[in-house]
């Protein structure tokens, strides 16, 4: 057995979701919304599977979707992309990440990782033979610092895995952070693999800044997006990859030996969805903002210390004021004793784990959030 995978424990998501099923707990752990997604986009997929083409689509993706991706990012992020040489469709963002890492990282290359991080990053880097170099981000702001980057970057740095907005912290990197990262990448001739799947799930008037738009980064960045996050259709697994032609040529070769292609009816529906008017995206953000604010207010009323959520489906609490020092133990008690599933953020760290932050998913129906708050009231009462 390959030890990279044989020695990985069961993911914390599966552990907590399993406990939620066993105990009948309110599951505010795993990150998927209750909403079924926009009906017109789903109907477009249904019509395409019944009346459209269902054989192998082009390896790079349907031309109509690649064109729609380029047009969408021009419209929303001001980036000019050639859909024929700079855009590719993958079977989800995780496949896009795997392909990018396997295409760009050689054995012995150093790869900068920012923790807390999506749990797929580290095993994929190790699979490629990369040497991880960690930058540990600290709550509550999770900011980049010159000192931390200087320790992580070296002449051996080949790539940087970057996630913005950042899951699990629900924070967005500031323009100053992005400028600092871009400076280090230019200085050390590093390629950024930028996981931007939450680019549309941002709040309070924020607008996503892609790494492709940063000075000097256009030819050294791989931008990854996700239709599943944009349309709250997490099971569809349609990802977007955008990069300069010299990078895309290699990325495409890795992709063709992973999944090769993606369901054509879903591609057709996503192409349609990306062309929806601004109202859809504004309404989506407004609805998630309302759920965030509802859950935040409820937690604060109960006395929890809430770390503000700037984007994603998540928000976090600091459990240190409760006298708690072990987020994993706290989350296990939370689900078994109080009937609420959450995720310990230490699970997203490889080194220097922060043990006092717990993540909840608020992309749920009001009744689900209210049921969770009702149970969490007992936690707050016990802590008091």
Summarize the structure.
One of its GO terms (molecular function) is pyridoxal phosphate binding. It contains 14 helices and 13 strands.
Overview of the structural elements:
The protein has 14 helices and 13 strands. It is α/β, with parallel strands linked by helices and 384 residues long. It has two domains: 3-30 and 279-383, Aspartate Aminotransferase, domain 1; 39-276, 3-Layer(aba) Sandwich (Aspartate Aminotransferase, domain 2), CATH 3.40.640.10. The strands form three sheets. The protein has a seven-stranded mixed sheet with strand order 2-8-7-6-5-3-4, sandwiched between helices. α3 packs antiparallel against α11 and α5 (93-104) packs parallel to α6 (121-127). The chain starts with a helix and ends with a helix.
Please give the domain count.
2
Which CATH class of the largest domain is shown?
Alpha Beta
Terminal-residue CA separation: 49 Å
Number of strands: 13
Structural class: alpha/beta
* Molecular shape: globular
Strand order in the largest sheet: 2-8-7-6-5-3-4
Order of helices and strands: HHEHHEHEHEHEHEEHEHHHEEHEEEH
Oligomer: single chain
**CATH-level-2 architecture of the largest domain:** 3-Layer(aba) Sandwich
Beta-strand content? 15-25%
Provide a count of the helices. 14
- The Cα radius of gyration reads 21 Å
Instruction: Give the full name of the CATH homologous superfamily of the largest domain.
Output: Type I PLP-dependent aspartate aminotransferase-like (Major domain)
Arithmetic mean pLDDT: 95
Largest sheet, in brief, is:
7 strands, mixed
Helicity, as a percent range: 40-55%
Unreliable residue stretches:
none
